[in-house]
Every structure is written in structure tokens, then in C-alpha cells.
Specification:
The chain is built from 20 helices and 16 strands. By secondary structure, the chain is α/β, with parallel strands linked by helices. The strands form 5 sheets. A 5-stranded parallel beta sheet has the order 2-1-3-4-5, with helices on both faces. A 5-stranded parallel beta sheet has the order 7-10-13-6-14. The C terminus is likely disordered. The chain binds adenosine-5'-triphosphate and magnesium ion. The site of adenosine-5'-triphosphate (ATP) has 18 residues, from helix 7, helix 13 and helix 15.
Length: about 475
């Protein structure tokens, strides 16, 4: 029964004949077998070699089966434990089941076949649980890796673009400042689409050693240059059928830009030192935090390559251009870093986060939350848990312990909303159309809120004078 391979089995009984019978049967099912004469010995053994399936006697000297079961459940919550019982102790067996034992089997075993079936069913249960766990982890990793958080109109537009592009082979250029989520989006385009089961190969064009870039991308033959002791496949070839993500494309040296262009036109690679060409089918996603358009105008980047890469552009907005996403992102990172505890952010701390400029964008916010969780009490993030650069960006906050998550007081919400609108409004010099777009609310709603929070073109104006 090969599917049971990898299952570790432990029998705990003071009677040698029982242990021998059990390990023989379990061994015939492909389990790896261990045995112990009493509860203490078993626990010591399990410390080093955790078991998936444990069969224990109920009546044993020193430590009873019930006590052992209780300890094992704490030590290995996922192990399946069954008890063996003489006819006289069925009641104890029932008690054991209440404590979480898988089942019980009566001793002496009426037939070896009965024991065999019993162990086999336990193994199936273990495998089922493991499979479920594995599947759950996969789904979790998928959202973890490609979860793009944000309700602002610009992020919603990015999500729509991803949905349109994911099943195509169209080249995509992703632009945006550092930390805005360019790689996250590149991965989403690949992993959400039809080609998700094909390779995704990320290449940081900025960190490749210039002399080795060509061989990294296209591969080389044995002896092509000093040190090329064996031939090596290039990154393009290893991504065949999938996606190559060319990060920091603006850093690619001129000479390589020409070679990359040729590859994109011909869809063939010629490894360094080789006379052969190989057909390669890859989708190219490039990213840059430089302004490539002005780079090609200044002659630093090839215009023809720029146009070939830039069939579709996704621009990632800076975080300060979409402040309304800060609360949502903050809670996303709280969930990620607070280890399942319901961590919260005080209203004043949130005001600081909204007043700051975020030159490092989402990455900086992520680091800030991770750090605040690690340095603070791990439950509530207050102003004092934030880096001083962020605190000093906010003119008027005092430390308070009022959490904003959970029981949100309407005053806090209003404070945060007011701070967000004020911030955006200042940023766009009072342009209501742009402000409305950045906040993701209609013009009418914006007008209503400006009036309500007494925000006008000049802060000194009163509500009645300030509007319209
Ligand atoms: N919208 C978002 N939702 C959730 N997490 C995000 C979002 N945007 C960025 N992140 C996270 O911020 C971090 C930085 O993102 P990423 O590496 O994709 O940025 P980048 O634009 O490639 O930065 P750089 O230019 O510095 O390489 C990552 O941990 C990413 O998961
Ligand atoms: Mg990046």
C-alpha cells in the first residue's frame, strides 16, 4: 500500500506480544514503526520523532492511557491516537474518545485483519487531513502573494487591466515609484492567468553584473569564456512558455538593450559562444521606476525597445496619490504581521499615517506596520510606535489609546475621514474634481463632506463662506 508510505506509527503497550503484532501489521501497511513500553518512554520518543498514528494501551503502569492521551494531544495536536482496551474497560475507552481519541479497538484482537483495517482507516484520515491542509496553504499562499489591496479608483483600474491581460501574451510595461507594487502586479498578471502553471522568472536588470548579463539571459556554451566550465541555459529559455519579468529595465546597458530588442523581434536565443539558435516563447513584463520616456528622449534608452516593451502600460500610483487606501492597507498588514491577534490602530496613529508622504510607498507602510507590531505591545499601534519621521509629519496629534478597529466610535471615523479629505484637498491645491477622483467619491459627496467638515479653499473660511 504505497500511499501509506511516510506515515509514522507508534504503539505503546507493556506487553511485548501486542507491540510485536501491531508493528508487524503496521509494517505490512508501509508505515514506519516505533514502539514504547509505557507513556513516559513514548513521550520521550515523540519529542524527537513525532508520529502520525499512535495506538496506546489504556491500562498501563506509571502513566495511564488517559493521562498519556491528554499529554499527546497537547504535544502533537494533529496526531491520530486510538486506544486498545480489554473488554472490561469500555467505559474508559469512551472517556478516551471524549478526550479526542480517534477510536478504540478491543484487545485481544479477534482477527489480524480487523487490526489491519483499523490502522488503514486511521492512515486514510491522516492523509485526508494533510491534503486539506496542503490545499488550504496553497490557496492562502496564492492570496498572500498576489493580494492587491485597494479600493481607490486607480487601483481598481489596475485590477481591471490585470483581468484583461492575464490570459494574453501582450508585453506589459509597469511604471511607478519604488514600493508601489510593480512586482506584485507582474506576478498577478502571470499567476492569475492561463499560464500560471508555466515558469515565472524575475530578472533584476539593475543588479546583474554587466559582463554576465548576456550569458544570464541567453545562456552560454561550455568554454564560451573563462570560467564557463559547463554550458548553461539562459533565463529566457528556462522561462519558456511562461513569463520573464525584467525588473528595473531602465538600468539595462545600451549594448544589452540592442540584444534584448533582437530577441523580442525574433523570439530566438543564441547562447554566448554557440552557433545555434533556439526558439523561445516567453511573455515579457518589464518594470521601471525611471521615466523611460524622458530616458529615450535623452538618448539613454533605445526608442525602438521602449515601444516594443510598452505595448500596454500599467502605472502604479504613489501611495500619497491614493490616501484613501491607507486604512485598508494598514489592516491588511496588521492581519499579516500580528499573528492572528486582533491588532488595532489608534485613531491618532491613523491620522499620522494619513498625514505622511510615503516616499517609499506601500513597502514603507508595510515595514512601518511590521516594526510597530514588533516593537509595541503587539496589540495596539499608537503614535509612539511609529517612526519619528512619520510622527513629525503630522502637526497635531497627541498620544491616545483609542483603538479604531473593533468598536469604532463614529467620532474617530469622522476624524479620519476629515484628515484624509483635508490632506488630499491640500495636495491638489483645492481642485475639487481631482480631489474627488483621488478619494473615489462623487463630486456631490465631496461637496457635502467639505461643507460638513468645514474644509474650504482657505482653512480660515467658515463653512458658509468656504463652499462653492
Ligand atoms: N496594493 C497592495 N496591496 C498589498 N500589498 C502591496 C500592495 N502594493 C505593494 N504591496 C507590498 O509592498 C511591497 C513592495 O511591493 P513591490 O515589491 O511589488 O514593489 P515595487 O514597485 O516592485 O518596488 P521596487 O521598485 O522598489 O522594486 C511588497 O511586500 C508588496 O507585497
Ligand atoms: Mg520591484
Amino acid at each position: 500500500m504505497t500511499e501509506s508510505l511516510g506515515i509514522r506509527f507508534l504503539v505503546v503497550d507493556d506487553e511485548e506480544s501486542i507491540r510485536r503484532l501491531c508493528t508487524t501489521v503496521a509494517g505490512s501497511l508501509g508505515f514506519t514503526c516505533m514502539e514504547a513500553v509505557n507513556g513516559h518512554a513514548a513521550l520521550a520518543l515523540l519529542e524527537d520523532q513525532p508520529a502520525h498514528i499512535i495506538l496506546t494501551d489504556l491500562v498501563m503502569p506509571q502513566m495511564s492511557g488517559i493521562e498519556f492521551l491528554d499529554k499527546v494531544r497537547k504535544m502533537l495536536p494533529r496526531a491520530e491516537v486510538a486506544v486498545m482496551t480489554g473488554h472490561s474497560s469500555v467505559e474508559t475507552a469512551v472517556q478516551a474518545m471524549k478526550l479526542g481519541a480517534y477510536d478504540y479497538i478491543a484487545k485481544p484482537f479477534s482477527a489480524v485483519e480487523e487490526l489491519r483495517l483499523f490502522l488503514r482507516r486511521m492512515a486514510e484520515k491522516v492523509q485526508l487531513v494533510e491534503e486539506n491542509e496542503f490545499l488550504r496553504e496553497c490557496t492562502y499562499a496564492e492570496t498572500e502573494l498576489h493580494g492587491i489591496v485597494g479600493a481607490s479608483p486607480t487601483i481598481q483600474e489596475v485590477l481591471r487591466m490585470i483581468a484583461r491581460l492575464k490570459d494574453t501574451r501582450t508585453p506589459v510595461l509597469i511604471t511607478g515609484e519604488s514600493g508601489t507594487g510593480k512586482e506584485l502586479v507582474a506576478r498577478a498578471v502571470h499567476f492569475r492567468g492561463t499560464f500560471a502553471n508555466r515558469p515565472f522568472v524575475a530578472v533584476d536588470c539593475g543588479s546583474l553584473v554587466p559582463t554576465l548579463i548576456e550569458s544570464e539571459l541567453f545562456g552560454h556554451e561550455k568554454g564560451a569564456f573563462t570560467g564557463a566550465v559547463r554550458s548553461k541555459m539562459g533565463l529566457f529559455q528556462s522561462a519558456d512558455g511562461g513569463t520573464v519579468f525584467l525588473d528595473e529595465i531602465g538600468e539595462l546597458p545600451q549594448e544589452m538593450q540592442a540584444k534584448l530588442l533582437r530577441f523580442l523581434q525574433e523570439k530566438e536565443v543564441r547562447p554566448v559562444g554557440s552557433n545555434n539558435k533556439f526558439k523561445v516563447d516567453v511573455r515579457v513584463i518589464a518594470a521601471t521606476n525611471r521615466d523611460l520616456e524622458s530616458a529615450y528622449r535623452a538618448g539613454q534608452f533605445r526608442k525602438d525597445l521602449y515601444f516594443r516593451l510598452n505595448v500596454v502600460t500599467i502605472h502604479m500610483p504613489a501611495l500619497r496619490e491614493r490616501l484613501s487606501d491607507i486604512p485598508m492597507l494598514t489592516h491588511w498588514f496588521l492581519d499579516r504581521y500580528a499573528n492572528g491577534t486582533d491588532a488595532q490602530v489608534t485613531a491618532n496613529a491613523m491620522k499620522c499615517l494619513l498625514a505622511y508622504d510615503w516616499p517609499g510607498n506601500v513597502r514603507e507602510l508595510e515595514n512601518c506596520i511590521e516594526r510597530a507590531i514588533a516593537l509595541g505591545d503587539g496589540k495596539t499601534i499608537d503614535v509612539r510606535d511609529l517612526p519619528s519621521a512619520i510622527i513629525s509629519a503630522s502637526p497635531t496629534v497627541e498620544t491616545s489609546a483609542m483603538p479604531i478597529e473593533g468598536m469604532l466610535l463614529s467620532n474617530d471615523l469622522e476624524d479620519i475621514e476629515r484628515a484624509t479629505i483635508l490632506r488630499v484637498f491640500e495636495q491638489v491645491n483645492g481642485d475639487k474634481v481631482v480631489a474627488g477622483k483621488m478619494l473615489g467619491i462623487s463630486r456631490a459627496t465631496l461637496y457635502r463632506k467639505l461643507k460638513r467638515y468645514n474644509i474650504g479653499p482657505r482653512p480660515s473660511l467658515s463653512a458658509s463662506q468656504g463652499m462653492n
